[in-house]
Write a structure and sequence with these properties.
The protein is mainly alpha-helical. The protein has a domain of 220 residues. The chain has 15 helices and no strands. Helix 2 crosses helix 13 and helix 5 runs antiparallel to helix 11. The protein is globular and about 75 Å long.
């Protein structure tokens, strides 16, 4: 390893941790500036998100969403593809979930969840395939096309919910509710046979374990298969990948299909595991939060797990903070923006002095 580079352990732990501390310190100053106590705000957030099984139920529910969207962005990042269309891909994934659950009678929840996962993955992958094709074959920039496809997905879903799938007599742009027979088991249902009490009010469900399994399978794919090697090689150097016989069209298309499928799968949690119907705001911005999760997790399938948990904590803690204090809910958006800023755009502001410190320590030996 070059003496001018950070040790790997420092790059994946110290850099994001210091960036996070800086973001929280500036957030504390903002809270202080609006006349609130930062320590009390922190206490309320921790209590609201982690202080009860009710809070954990919501924190883990949001974490599940961010695990899947963060993983979707991470897979694309490995090929140096900036897929910021996770929001639209999740919206279309939700449409796939709604269609298979509304029009096919499923005997139980586990057959229904398998069908919902498959449908959401297919719809999400199909929506990601179009920008992928435009990038691979036409040279259209993936950032521009995925942004535009987010808006197209929203408009398309709005039309379908308002004019096609809306139950007769309903004014709400949403589908009918799914059958109670296919309701996903929640964490409380899983822990009850083990004698562990957990709030039934929190929406966290079996999709949490599906998301964690997806992280494991993504790691296996990226670091233990030929396809994963090709994706990472293409991301490190496209000319070198071409020289090695790796097709850029194939890698771009396969990466975007996998990324879109993972983003689409997030809708199983927010549609089938949440309101039990498809509504317009089912995704709740998780597609965009996935970008921050991927940046914090260094685009590693295991690194995104603590990052997703952090943003799950911010979401749930922020909701409690808005209820208990005069701090607006938008303050959490500011904190999220600061986290994204320091772990992404200003990452080198932390890495450069830290690298210099390590170089200086090596020089004294």
């Amino acid at each position: 390893m070059s003496t001018r580079r950070l040790p790997h352990w420092a790059d994946v732990t110290l850099v994001p941790l210091i960036s996070l501390l800086i973001a929280f310190a500036i957030s504390a100053l903002v809270i202080l500036a609006i006349g609130e106590d930062p320590w009390e705000a922190t206490r309320l957030m921790v209590q609201g998100a982690l202080g009860s099984t009710y809070g954990w139920g919501y924190t883990l529910y949001y974490t599940t969403n961010f695990l899947l969207t963060g993983l979707a962005v991470s897979i694309a990042f490995q090929a140096r593809l900036f897929n910021i269309g996770g929001e639209g891909q999740a919206l279309l994934g939700g449409l796939g979930v709604a269609l298979v659950l509304l029009f096919v009678p499923w005997p139980n929840w586990w057959t229904a969840i398998l069908a919902a996962i498959a449908a959401s993955a297919v719809f999400g992958a199909a929506w990601a395939a179009i920008p992928g094709y435009l990038q691979a074959k036409r040279g259209s920039h993936i950032v521009i096309t995925t942004i535009m496809f987010n808006f197209i997905a929203f408009s398309l879903l709005n039309y379908i919910l308002s004019h096609v799938l809306r139950p007769q007599g309903s004014m709400d742009p949403a589908t009918a509710r799914f059958s109670n027979d296919i309701r996903l088991p929640r964490i409380a249902d899983i822990l009850e046979p083990l004698g562990i009490e957990f709030s039934r009010s929190g929406p966290a469900n079996v999709m949490l374990f599906v998301a964690l399994l997806a992280c494991l399978l993504a790691w296996v794919m990226l670091w233990r298969t030929r396809l994963g090697f090709s994706i990472r090689a293409f991301g490190q150097s496209e000319p070198a990948a071409h020289y090695a016989g790796i097709s850029s069209v194939r890698i771009v298309m396969l990466t975007m299909l996998i990324s879109g499928a993972l983003a689409g799968m997030m809708a199983v949690n927010s549609v089938m595991g949440g309101p039990q119907r498809l509504v317009m705001n089912a995704v709740e911005g998780a597609g965009f939060i996935g970008i921050a999760v991927a940046l914090m997790g260094r685009s590693h399938p295991f690194g995104i797990i603590p990052a997703a948990l952090l943003f799950g904590f911010l979401y749930q803690g922020g909701s409690e903070l808005a209820i208990e204090t005069s701090i607006p809910r938008e303050m959490i958006i500011i904190i999220q923006a600061l986290v994204i800023l320091f772990t992404g755009a200003l990452d080198n502001m932390v890495r450069a002095p830290l690298t210099a410190a390590f170089v200086a320590m090596r020089g004294r030996r």
